[in-house]
Write a structure and sequence with these properties.
alpha+beta, Pdz3 Domain, six-stranded antiparallel beta sheet, three-stranded mixed beta sheet, 23% strand, disordered N terminus
Length: 284
């Protein structure tokens, strides 16, 4: 028996509607979306569209877009560092960003010491020139002198190669107790001199000078408020007191700042008990 039919006004036969037809369409549509998603995110189609969400960071979205669309390969970490530095710079003159790789070098002068060979140097005409060996340091003990030119470190040429301060630090500094071979040119010597230097703990002093200006008047100059400054000050003060100091000139000109705790300790030496020296205030 044939299926029941009905006719329209034009007397054309119409099949009766299949109740499962909407389900078929839904399944086909879902399959199409699934295949499209698979090929888009599995290499069959170019991934050239930036997908973002309203809750995503604008900065992260922009960095994602740059990584996908910029003509050259970029270093995302460097872009992030520059972005953060620019944001903080817009706040006030005292807000700054220190990348992790630079933190130790920035903080080092305030710690009071570092591990290395113990020389002050400058780069002159693309050559490392020793300004002064630090008294008591490994280099001074081995006889390295002001004016010496460091031309090689561990056999690697360090002269005439556009060396930077950071590269010099990386080569000369290292864990206390480790050795480094340094080749030096010295005026008056026909051949280069070689030194095998054992790195050590190098002190950094924050009191540049202390002495009696005249009988009874002492003078102490402090260049920064480092971790060891308070102890250095007490030592210098006691020495001058034994020499008959009755008054003191404390010179802070050119002081670049440092640890707040150290500055408070020093201020407390000159103020009466119970006086407020400083306070900090934040949001909480």
């Amino acid at each position: 028996m044939s299926d029941p039919i009905e006719t329209n006004n034009n007397h054309e036969p119409l099949k009766k509607h299949n109740p499962f037809m909407p389900l078929y369409f839904a399944l086909v549509l879902a399959a199409g979306v699934g295949f499209g998603y698979y090929f888009t995110f599995n290499g069959a189609a170019p991934q050239n569209k930036l997908h973002t969400s309203s809750s995503g960071s604008k900065i992260n979205n922009l960095l994602d877009f740059i990584e996908m669309q910029y003509v050259d390969t970029v270093n995302r970490s460097q872009l992030e560092n520059k972005t953060i530095a620019a944001m903080l710079k817009s706040l006030d003159p005292h807000s700054d960003y220190i990348p992790a790789e630079d933190f130790d070098a920035v903080n080092e002068p305030l710690e009071g010491n570092f591990d290395g060979i113990g020389v002050e140097f400058n780069i002159i005409n693309d050559t490392i020139r020793v300004i002064n060996p630090i008294i008591g340091g490994p280099s001074e003990k081995l006889g390295i002198k002001a004016g010496d030119k460091i031309i090689k470190v561990s056999g690697k040429n360090m002269a005439g190669v556009k060396i930077t301060n950071k590269q010099v630090f990386d080569k000369l500094r290292g864990k206390s107790g480790t050795d480094v071979k340094v080749t030096i040119l010295r005026t008056g010597e026909k051949k280069p001199l070689e030194f095998n230097i054992t790195r050590g703990k190098i002190p950094l002093y924050s009191i540049d000078i202390s002495y009696l200006l005249k009988p009874g008047i002492g003078y102490i100059k402090i260049s920064r408020f480092a971790g060891t400054t308070y102890e250095e000050y007490l030592s210098a003060f006691n020495t001058l007191s034994k020499q008959g100091m009755k008054k003191l000139i404390l010179d802070l000109r050119g002081n670049g700042g440092g640890f707040l705790k150290t500055a408070v300790e020093l201020a407390d030496e000159f103020l009466a008990n119970g006086l407020q020296i400083v306070y900090t205030q934040g949001r909480t």
